[in-house]
Amino acid sequence: MTQLKTIVVVGGSYAGTYLIDRLAPQVHKTHQIVLIQKNSHMHHIFAFPRISVVQGFEQKAFVPYTNAFHAAPAQSTTIIQGIVKTIMADCVVLEDGQDIPYEYLVVATGTGRPPLALTSKLDEMQTRRVLQQRIKEANDVVVVGGGAYGLQLAFDAKELYPTKNVTLIHSTIQLMPRFHPRLHEIVTSRATALGIRLIFAVIRHQITRSRKSGRVSEGRRQVVDQGYRSR
Ligand SMILES: Cc1cc2nc3c(=O)[nH]c(=O)nc-3n(C[C@H](O)[C@H](O)[C@H](O)COP(=O)(O)OP(=O)(O)OC[C@H]3O[C@@H](n4cnc5c(N)ncnc54)[C@H](O)[C@@H]3O)c2cc1C
């Protein structure tokens, strides 16, 4: 029997898992696929802003790899939870020292820079629960950054807890700056209707957070106003 060659895929998020599902049925007679992925579960990051605020369904954002590949024949794909530290010409080297040889390599590590650390579903869920609880207990919620992530988080917090003071600080005069300016107007009017305070300003000094209480230190925060605020 001929030995199967190995295709290594680094990164098991949307791109990596989709690629494996499409590739494995076509190559499984000659190649095995090894997915190397630092998270124990696939992170459905579209839901992350919401599960940082709303309680009770954070488990759904961490999807097991058990049934990830519907089209891939059984045994065609192996999943290793690990962190690729070095890419060599014929193998990748994991943080724990293991070498995984490859014939072909797919790098699907995304464009973000999340910390390179192994994660488990339980730890990730716990992180979200701490955030949810902190927002639940706070009277004043300040969100820094008016891109999609920050906006959704601020809107969710204000819709779920209408009596809290929710402030969104954004560094330019256009919310969602990667999108059409008209979207800024739509989002601004919705924020105003909900009662979210908008501040267009640059934070000059890093916000410090008390390790004990998790509270932001007011004394070291300096917001430099860009000249517009909603109220
Ligand atoms: C809140 C939010 C909402 C979004 N909503 C949408 C949406 O509605 N529609 C849309 O099209 N896009 C959306 N996006 C963008 C979308 O999430 C990204 O485009 C997408 O995640 C990119 O997928 P990817 O597989 O290329 O990389 P990523 O999702 O970044 O995944 C990279 C994977 O590689 C792993 N990895 C990285 N380095 C290593 C290493 N050295 N060793 C092992 N593993 C490693 C990581 O653990 C991760 O699993 C959203 C993004 C966010 C943050």
Keywords, please?
231 residues, FAD/NAD(P)-binding domain, 2 domains, binds flavin-adenine dinucleotide
Can you characterise this structure?
The protein is elongated. It has 2 domains: 5-121, FAD/NAD(P)-binding domain, CATH 3.50.50; 138-229, FAD/NAD(P)-binding domain. With 231 residues, the protein is of the alpha/beta class. A 4-stranded parallel sheet has the order 5-2-1-9, with helices on one face. A 4-stranded mixed sheet has the order 10-11-12-13. The mean pLDDT is 90. It contains 5 helices and 13 strands. The N and C termini lie far apart (74 Å). Flavin-adenine dinucleotide binds next to helix 1, strand 2, helix 2 and helix 4. Pfam families: Pyr_redox_2.
Mean residue pLDDT: 90
CATH fold description of the largest domain? FAD/NAD(P)-binding domain
Tally of contiguous helical segments: 5
Biggest beta sheet attributes: 4 strands, parallel
- Helix/strand/pairing category: alpha/beta
What is the CA-CA span between the terminal residues? 74 Å
Which small compounds were modeled alongside the protein? flavin-adenine dinucleotide
Query: What's the number of extended β-strand segments?
Result: 13
Strand order of the largest sheet: 5-2-1-9
The coarse overall form would be elongated
Number of domains: 2
What CATH architecture label of the largest domain applies? 3-Layer(bba) Sandwich
**Radius of gyration, in angstroms, nearest whole number:** 22 Å
GO molecular function, one term: flavin adenine dinucleotide binding
Protein name: FAD/NAD(P)-binding domain-containing protein
